[in-house]
Amino acid sequence: MKSLVPPGVYAPQEDTELLVGALSEEPVPPGADVLDVGTGSGALAVAAARRGARVTAVDVSRRAVCAARLNALRAGVPVRVRRGNLFAPVRGRSFDLILANPPYVPAPHGLPRGAARAWDAGGDGRLVLDRICREAPALLRPGGALLLVQSALSDPELTLGHLRAAGMKAAVTRRRRIAFGPVLRDREHWLRERGLLPPTENREELVVVRAELPV
Ligand SMILES: C[S@@+](CC[C@H](N)C(=O)[O-])C[C@H]1O[C@@H](n2cnc3c(N)ncnc32)[C@H](O)[C@@H]1O
């Protein structure tokens, strides 16, 4: 069944699909505790719940929270959906797996507002990524894993470096090159001027980073 995506909620795209693919290769024992942070329409949360996980999903957007609840209901799987800023609604809890498709697009203007909060992430695209790298390791159980998707434009090497510095084993496990969507087409000139996009590059690379805490 196709997800319902109300206006203002991020419609599942290639990044969602890449992460769903990575999730399908991840061992998810029945009853494992999974967190989907920045759940949007709930596509990843529902995919994890279908595997028998106990899923909590968080989003800062009220509309996204409603959409994720509705889509979990329609799929007939239990997902606990909370509204809040990143990990704030799950403080004190721990997880076997954290999924994240955060905003990661470098943006020429200040703090993201409205629907753009789903993709804009400050001048270097790392506004939310850096917070995830800093805060996620403490929420994982020993042997737990973080799976996140981001653009090559927002420095996956830095993500790997931060996660390794936090004691995790981290690697890029999937890559996909995609055509520029409307957001990148709009700011292509700015990205090239800043040196974030090489002069002849006309595709965006998405990567999945997998990081695991030692047992
Ligand atoms: C790229 S969309 C991904 C949506 C969905 N997970 C998917 O893969 O289709 C990013 C989502 O993160 C949410 N978000 C952005 N900043 C957040 C924050 N600080 N805390 C919680 N959610 C946030 C946005 O509202 C948006 O729904």
Could you explain how this protein is built, in words?
It is a single chain. With 215 residues, the chain is an alpha/beta fold. It has one domain (14-212): Vaccinia Virus protein VP39 (Rossmann fold, 3-Layer(aba) Sandwich), CATH 3.40.50.150. It is 28% helix and 26% strand. The chain has a 7-stranded mixed sheet with strand order 3-2-1-4-5-7-6. The termini are far apart. S-adenosylmethionine binds at residues 10, 12, 16, 38-40, 43-44, 58-61, 64, 85-86, 101-103, 117-119, 128.
Number of domains: 1
Instruction: Choose one word for the global shape.
Output: globular
Overall pLDDT metric: 96
User: What is the assigned CATH homologous superfamily?
Assistant: Vaccinia Virus protein VP39
Alpha carbon gyration radius: 16 Å
Major beta sheet, specifics? 7 strands, mixed
| End-to-end separation | 37 Å
Structural class, by secondary structure, is: alpha/beta
CATH class: Alpha Beta
Q: Count every helix, treating DSSP H or I runs of 4 or more residues as helices.
A: 7
- What CATH architecture label applies? 3-Layer(aba) Sandwich
Helix content: 25-40%
Question: How many beta strands in the DSSP annotation?
Answer: 7
Stated plainly, the CATH topology is called Rossmann fold
Task: Give the ligands present.
Answer: S-adenosylmethionine
**Largest beta sheet: what is the strand line-up?**
3-2-1-4-5-7-6
Secondary-structure element pattern, one letter each: HEHEHEEHEHEHHE
Residue runs with pLDDT of under 50 for 5 or more positions: none
Query: Beta-strand level of the residues, as a percent range?
Result: 25-35%
